[in-house]
Amino acid sequence: MNPFRRLFSIQSTSSASYLKINEQVKQALFEKKGVVALESTIIAHGMPYPTNLNTGHELEEIIRSEGAVPATIAIMDKKIHIGLSERKMERIAKSKDALKVSRRDIAKCLAMNSVGATTVASTMWAAHQAGIRVFATGGIGGVHRYADQTFDISADLQELATTPVTVVCAGVKSILDIPKTVEYLETHSVNTIVYSEKNAFPAFFTQESGSKGQFNTKDLEKVARIIETSKQLGLPAGTILACPIPLEHCGDGRLIEEAIQQALEEAKAENITGQAATPFLLSRVKELTGGKSLEANVALVKNNARIAARLAKILAERSS
Ligand code: PSU
Ligand code: MN
Is this entry keyworded rRNA processing (predicted)? Predict the structure, then answer.
């Protein structure tokens, strides 16, 4: 190959040409205001319509009310959109065939011109490409139960090991193996901070999982200091800020926990595995709890969005 063409093709391997950052987000990044990324799998596959669309809007509103700027991320029209217009948000929320796009699937989704909803892993990656440091969601993926037989470990954990974005979440659902997930995070050197007076790693619908994080604090200045120090040291890993579901929303925790156990048994009996496992379990748990799990889910994501917006503002102020 002509050496100049070769040089050009090397230089052109930049993700920038695939990113479409909306004006508000661009401006906020330029002015060093806080920006909070939001994933779209939670909209397309994690919640039913129209709760998903309303929640998507409410999360953006909460982030704005805290003085930060939301950036919901999704793939369509061969671009990774960072910040969605009203119309694009609706397209994701109503789509029946949006792909669940983890990091592995980003290239395929773009190349095939599919509509893609980004998971924690791909949202983190895209956020980092755009210069966004904080991301709010409900729960991250983790080590699945029976992972010793299935090898099913979410790419979210690998992304946390290599991408310096802070994920504000309510821990992981007990549809997963929480102790193994926490161990994996430790092995891969991910800062795992519990946002609480007590060092109890949360279990999504309930405040405590029985596992511990690395450290606990309710002081976001301290959290920001740890993130900044990690960055200065050049450590590649991300940070988990695990926020327990607010007490007033976890009254049905035990009921939901029983539904999870039943859904897990059904998934096993019906041999539902791989990428299909999480959406199946989530929708089955919703049915079994008469919608109570969905209400709790919405409440905890909103709580996380608020905390993430506050953290993003502190980080932005420190860097400006
Ligand atoms: N956990 C939830 N709700 C979700 C997910 C996880 O409580 O919607 C989604 C997130 O997008 C997460 C993904 O990144 O599932 C993990 O899927 P997998 O295990 O296939 O990596
Ligand atoms: Mn998996």
Answer: no
